[in-house]
Amino acid sequence: MNQSKRKTRGVIEKTLAEITGALEQTLFAEELARQPGLLQALDARAKLLGAFALLIAISAAQNLVVIAALYALTLPVAIASRVPLGFFLKRVWVLMPFFTGIVALPALFSPFTPGAPLITLIDLASPRVYLAITYPGVITAAFLLMRVGASVSIAVLLILTTRWATLLHALRVLRVPQAFVLILGMTYRYIYVLLHAVNNLFLARTSRVVGRVSGADNRRWVAASMGALFAKSYALSDDVYLAMLSRGFRGEARAMDAIAWRARDGVWLAVFVVIAVIAIWLGK
Amino acid sequence: MHIPDGYLSPATAAVMYAASAPFWYRASQKIKTVIAGRLVPRIALFAALAFVIMLFNIPAPGGTTAHAIGSVLAALVVGPWASVLAISVALIIQAFFFGDGGILALGANVFNMAIAMPFAGWFVYRALAGNTSNASRRILAAAIAGYVGANVAALLTGIELGLQAALFRDAAGRALYFPYGIEVAVPAMLLEHLTIAGVVEAFVTGGVLAWILRTNPEMIVESPGASSTVARMPQWAWALIALLVVLTPLGLLTPGSPWGEWGREELANLGLGYIPAGLDQWSNLWRAPIPDYDIPLLENPTIAYIVSALIGAGLVALATFAVLWIVRRVKAQPART
Predict the structure, then answer these.
(1) What is the mean predicted confidence (pLDDT) over A62-72?
(2) Half-sphere exposure of A179 (CA within 13 A, CB side)
(3) Which residues of A touch B188 (CB under 8 A)?
(4) Which of A12, A130, B320, B328 is the most exposed place for a label (fewest CB within 10 A)?
């Protein structure tokens, strides 16, 4: 009984924690993106294209050393961009193993990756039981972890040093369809509104509930709150549309600020692309 | 179910982007035509909503919690095409803002969760609910649609991951990307979704639809009459999906090699019929017709492809037929509630 109480409470608390976490994370990113730093000073287009080139290189390289080298390059860049190193390392190497580490773990062992044994764990003749950590298994798992770690690092650097508004603008300049960019921008804006609404909803609920709530009741309540959010978004979208119309929206969005492409954006983009090409070539 | 970067080969990632592109194009064409952008804020709001719903912890039977995706729910409320855009946008923001799901793997994630899932759920719902105004039947249909949608997405994810080990290995035969084959990846994905995640999706789809039907029934696009444009879709959409099912693994065959090495066996095998006689003497490389040891090398991945494509298509078809069979059984008897 006691256990089920904790669990059902946990549902709301976990969601609250995740919503707060999401809000905090974006605030942190926005704040970091405003600071002066190496990547912050670059044009969002250069960063976006450079990140793509490096991600492709990480993905295409078939050599662990090359992938590790690409990862190592992100560290000085992170420092030069004022990304707290502890945060940067933790974000990649503490959180990721919970998912990818568990995925990669069985690959170490002989039943999944047969091959030359590195450590033999069980070796019985009869009945035949054999379990070993194999050499190819370690390599395979290392490939997965290194690749994911390096890719996440690049993505985190892009996210932390680029303001959403400029990233959107970059997408528009890079010929992503107008409607798509428009929707992306509005979505991002309204995620905050909805997150705050959910936060209030959940806080109100927790502060009014005393005692135990059954799982079924909780499920019903979660469905009702999602439904309420649906209704809220529906009403909001009508309001937004009317607001857009009254401001002269005719199916096309215009942005006021033009972003200037400077020489050093080009230089850095070239650096990223050259590194990526070299890595692909070395990693063949 | 969000695939991170590093799990898929670049070739697979590119193929999945290519598979998603026509759906994106078609979906954004559709919103252009719908009354002067009225759908723009609606899709944006539903994308934001989908993002928030993905953060919800939902108590699953048995005491654990799981996350829902909400694609099928979005398809029922705003229609499948609008939900393609809304869920895609939510996935893009997750990838570019929260590092959930890879940037290169975005095409695959979109295809699984923002295209296959809402369409699969939508068709199941249409088949089960038909034009009924019976709320219980619609809610049940929505729940089953959510369950099927989540499992179709999980199946596709399993196939995409499982193909990696069959297709992309280094010279020593070690897996370069996701290390397990289809025989491990698909059951692992399906086990989770058939038991827990699918049930949660079913509950969210059915439960929220029930709430909306009770409080704001006018919100739902699927009511008969409102969906005249969408009701036309199934035929060609089915054909397109069938085509993609067939083409996706075939398309993988060609780019499968550029990222491996342009090794002699591959080149020889790829171009064997077209190599001129002069070239034949020019290099030893070309002289050998497929040597004995080459055949298993090429055939294994090929067989893996075709077998997996057949398994995938077969399972989807099987699920569809099973659902249709159930519909007939249900229709034959008067609904209980």
Answers:
(1) 89
(2) 25
(3) none
(4) B328
CB pair distance less than 8 Å for A183 and B211: no
Question: Are B28 and A59 inside 8 Å of each other by CB?
Answer: no
The interface residues of chain B toward chain A in range 66-105, judged by CB-CB distance below 8 A, are 77, 85, 89-90, 92-93, 95-99, 102-104
Cβ–Cβ < 8 Å for B204, B68: yes
Report the C-alpha gap between B254 and B246 in whole angstroms.
14
Q: pLDDT for B103-114, tens place per residue?
A: 899 999 999 999
Q: Do B203 and A223 touch (CB under 8 A)?
A: yes
Q: How far is A123 from chain B (nearest CA, A)?
A: 23
CB contact under 8 A, A198 and B52: yes
Q: Which of B45, B207, B219 sits opposite A190 (nearest CB)?
A: B45
Match 């619609």 to its residue by tokens: B138
Pick from B16, B195, B170: nearest CA to B103: B16
Search chain A and give the residue with CA nearest B256. Answer: A60
Cα-based distances in Å from B137 to A127, B134, B236, B319: 55, 6, 27, 19
Gap between the Cα atoms of B4 and A150, Å rounded: 11
The reply to whether residue A191 touches residue B32, judged by beta carbons under 8 angstroms, is no
- Domain range list for chain B: 10-233
How far from the centroid of its chain's Cα atoms is residue B168's Cα? 21
CB atoms within 10 A of CB A41: 13
SS3 A6: helix
Of the candidate CATH numbers 3.40.50.720, 3.40.50.11780, 2.102.10.10, 1.10.1760.20, the domain formed by B10-233 belongs to 1.10.1760.20
Residue B183 contacts by C-beta under 8 Å, 6 or more apart in sequence?
A: B162
The CA distances from residue B238 to B143, B243, B244, in Å, are: 22, 8, 10
Query: Chain A neighbours among B 254-283 (CB < 8 Å)?
Result: 259, 261
Check residue B258 and give its pLDDT. Answer: 35
**CA atoms of A43 and A66, how far apart (whole Å):** 27
Whole-number Å distance between alpha carbons of B70 and B86: 10
Which residues 145-164 of B have a C-beta within 8 angstroms of A? none
Residues of A in contact with B36 (CB under 8 A): 250-251
